[in-house]
Request: fold
Amino acid sequence: MDNNGSFYQQAQRLQDAAYDVRNPKIREARLIIEQTIKEELRTKPREEIKQLHSWNIGNPPYFGIQPPEEINHLLQQIQIQYGYSPAQGLEQAIESIFAYHQSQKFINLKRENIFGTDGVSEGIRLVTTATLNPGDEILLPTPNYPLWRLFVQQAGAIPVHYQCDEKSCWYPDLADIIRKISGRTKAILLINPNNPTGAIYSLEILQQIISIAREHRLIIFADEVYNEVLYGQAKHIPIASISDEVLIFTLNGLSKNRLMPGIRSGWIAISGPTHQARDLINGINLLVNARLCPNIYGQLAIPLILPRADYLRPLLVPGGRFFDQIEAASQAINQCEELSCVKADATMYLYVKINSPNHIANDEKFILDLLNAERVQLVQGTGFDDKNLPRHIRIVCLAPVAELTEGIGRIIRFLQNYKN
Ligand SMILES: Cc1ncc(COP(=O)(O)O)c(C=O)c1O
Reply:
C-alpha cells in the first residue's frame, strides 16, 4: 500500500492533471448538500429550504432550455443504424458539415478534411494527440477552457498561456502572444466566441493572429463551439473564412449551437494549405480509424439538425431566455460593489471580477466555502488557468432570471464578510 491507501495508482501523467469545471472536491461537497436538502425536505416545506444552484456547466437542457417539440419529432424519425460508419463519419453528415462551412465562407475546405467526433471534446483530444510532440509548446489563452490544457499536457507538450485583456473587451493581447513565441511553439488556440469571457474577436484581431501565425508557421486551433450563441447584433467571423495561408483546425458541434450537448455530436474541419499537411492529416486519419467511428446517433442527427439555426435565434433576442438571463445577471453584477463584469457578446457565461483582491488568496477554497455556505456552485478563475489577481469567477447564466438574480444576491452577501 502507498501513502494514499491505494494499491492501484493512476498513471503519473494524470497525477497533477485537473479539469476544474468538474472539480472533485466541489463535487463531493455538492453531493453532501444534495443529501442534506433531501433530509431537510422531510421536515420543512420546500420554500423554506435554501436551494442548490449548480452553475458550473454550460448545459442548457439541465436548466430546461431544450430544442422545441418539433425537433424531438424530427429526431424520433431517425432510423438508427447499428453498424460502424466510415471512420470519418457518415457521408450525409460530412456533406451537411461541408455545406454549413461553405455557407460560412471557409476557404479551401475539402470534404475529405472533415472528421466527425463525439462532441468537440473528442476533437480536442484527437487534434492535440495528432499534432503535438513532447516538448512542443502551444499558446493557450488565459482564461482558457481547461480541457485544451489537459489534453496538451497528456500529449507531453507544454501549454504556454497568453493573456486576454479584460480592459480591451477580453481580446487576446497580441504583444503578449508575440513575446511568448519560441522556437518550439507549434500552434495557437483561439476560443472564439470565448468560454469563459463571452468575447467575440474582431476582424482586425483575427487578421493579426493570422499574420503572427503565418510569420511563425503556427497551426491555428479554432474552437468555435459557441459560434451561433450570439446576442443581439453581434457577429462571429470564423477564422477559416479570412485566410487560407495558415493551417486551421476548426472544431464545432451540436452541443451549444443546437442545445444538444448530450448527443455528443461534433467535428473537426481542416482548412488552409492542407496540401502541405498530408502527413499530419494521415495522423488524424490513423486516430479516427483506430477509434472505428464517431457515435452513429450524433452523426445521423447532423443533416437534420445542423441546418436548423432557426430555433436558437429566438432565445438570443430580448424576450428570449438566453438574452434576458445574461442581461439580468450582468445588471445585478454591475450594480454592486463586490463584483463587476464585461458584458458578454456571446456564450452563456459571465466571467466576473471580484473587487476585493486582498481577500481571496485561494479561489478554489472560496468556491468551496461559497458552495457550503450559500449552496451556489461556480467555477473559479484558476480553474480556467487564470492565476491573476484580482480573482474571477465564472457564472453560468442558464437559470431563469428570478433564480439567477436571487443566487447572485447570495454571492454578493457572502463576499461582504469573506476573507481567505
Ligand atoms: C470552449 C469549449 N470547447 C469545447 C467544449 C466541449 O464541447 P462538447 O460538449 O461538444 O464536447 C466546451 C464545453 O463546454 C467548451 O466550452
Notes: The two ends are 35 Å apart (CA to CA). The mean pLDDT is 96.
